[in-house]
């Protein structure tokens, strides 16, 4: 019958093949960023700032490569890309807290508002682990700082009207992490450690 022109069919196949190939490449680069994010957090948490700086340089380079791949409109909201940027925000923000005592802005991290907030929400779990480690080492002042940072992130998410889904879960996670830290500090105060 031939209602679809062969040139049109070929064009459609090429577009879809190209998109599939881009998805595969973007997924691989996203995994690279996630892996480097975990390595950056691990080095930062150990206080190994030399290794952390090396990982930071690597992750920034990989994030640039990832952003180039995701520059096509259909790829910008592809889940592996969004997840990789969240992990990037979490890892780089954790490094900055340890090394620079501040949280980078979303423009410094080149992240959309929703991805930035979700990355910071995930960051609170790392801050809880850091505070627990600080308490074990009897660095109570630093543990209190971690709690204050989580409280500040909670203040941010508290002011956002979430409809539900992942953003709502992330906001609940921040609240739970803050409660955990408050209990940890309270217990230390009762035992006259602080």
Question: What would you say about this model in short?
Answer:
With 194 residues, the protein is mostly helical. Helices cover 80% and strands 0% of the residues. Helix 2 (49-69) packs antiparallel against helix 3 (79-100), helix 5 (113-136) runs parallel beside helix 7 and helix 6 (140-158) runs antiparallel to helix 7 (165-190).
Describe the structure.
- The longest helix has 40 residues, at 6-45.
- This protein has helices spanning 6-45, 49-69, 79-100, 106-109, 113-136, 140-158, 165-190.
- The protein folds into 2 domains: 8-88, Methane Monooxygenase Hydroxylase, Chain G, domain 1 (Up-down Bundle); 112-194, Translin, domain 2 (Methane Monooxygenase Hydroxylase, Chain G, domain 1), CATH 1.20.58.
- The protein is elongated, with a radius of gyration of 21 Å.
- The model has no long low-confidence stretch (mean pLDDT 88).
- It is 80% helix and 0% strand.
- The chain is built from 7 helices and no strands.
- The protein starts with 5 loop residues before the first helix and ends with a helix.
- Helix 1 (6-45) packs antiparallel against helix 2 (49-69) and helix 2 packs antiparallel against helix 3 (79-100).
- The chain is mostly helical.
């Amino acid at each position: 019958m031939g209602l679809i022109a062969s040139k049109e069919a070929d064009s459609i196949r090429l577009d879809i093949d190209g998109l599939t190939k881009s998805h595969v490449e973007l997924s691989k680069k996203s995994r690279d960023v996630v892996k480097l994010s975990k390595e950056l957090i691990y080095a930062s948490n150990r206080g190994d700032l030399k290794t952390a700086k090396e990982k930071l340089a690597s992750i920034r380079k990989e994030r640039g490569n990832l952003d180039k791949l995701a520059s096509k409109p259909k790829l910008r909201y592809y889940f592996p890309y969004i997840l990789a940027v969240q992990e990037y925000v979490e890892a780089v923000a954790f490094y900055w807290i340890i090394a620079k005592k501040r949280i980078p802005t979303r423009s410094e991290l080149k992240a959309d508002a929703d991805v930035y907030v979700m990355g910071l929400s995930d960051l609170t779990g790392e801050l809880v682990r850091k505070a627990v480690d600080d308490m074990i080492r009897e660095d109570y002042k630093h543990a209190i700082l971690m709690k204050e940072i989580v409280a500040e992130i909670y203040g941010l998410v508290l002011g956002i009207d979430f409809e539900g889904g992942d953003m709502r879960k992330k906001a609940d996670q921040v609240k739970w992490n803050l409660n955990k830290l408050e209990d940890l500090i309270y217990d230390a105060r009762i035992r006259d450690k602080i």
